[in-house]
Design brief:
Elements lengths: L9 H12 L3 H8 L1 H5 L7 E13 L7 E9 L5 E5 L13 E5 L15
Antiparallel strand pairs: 1-2, 1-4, 2-3
């Protein structure tokens, strides 16, 4: 059974297209708004937070590194996240005070490159 092709089928074609859009994964992700709810930054590129503690996250096998991270409580919504501290010796400059976090998201990539962070 194919699609309707008559002269008076515009409403049926339009409503069927509207229903079928919700079976598309990207459309549903963009229009439900759950991606913004799951994101602790709430759609923003930066957020300010208070450092709670310094933690070391171990890498998965076969690596044996300890990734230097900090546990941060965001000021805007109170959510606690783990943030990666990038360069060598930068963990020494971080104290228990408010500082700004930066995050860049690309399409089709994970929230953060570091696993478990």
């Amino acid at each position: 059974m194919g699609k309707c092709r008559g002269l008076r089928t515009a409403r049926k074609l339009r409503s069927h297209r509207r229903d079928q859009k919700w079976h598309d994964k990207q459309y549903k992700k963009a229009h439900l708004g759950t991606a913004l709810k799951a994101n602790p930054f709430g759609g923003a590129s930066h957020a300010k937070g208070i450092v709670l503690e310094k933690v070391g996250v171990e890498a998965k096998q076969p690596n044996s590194a300890i990734r230097k991270c900090v546990r941060v409580q965001l000021i805007k919504n109170g959510k606690k996240i783990t943030a990666f501290v990038p360069n060598d010796g930068c963990l020494n400059f971080i104290e228990g005070k408010a500082f700004e976090l930066g995050l860049a998201l690309k399409d089709g990539q994970n929230f953060d490159k570091q696993r478990g962070v």
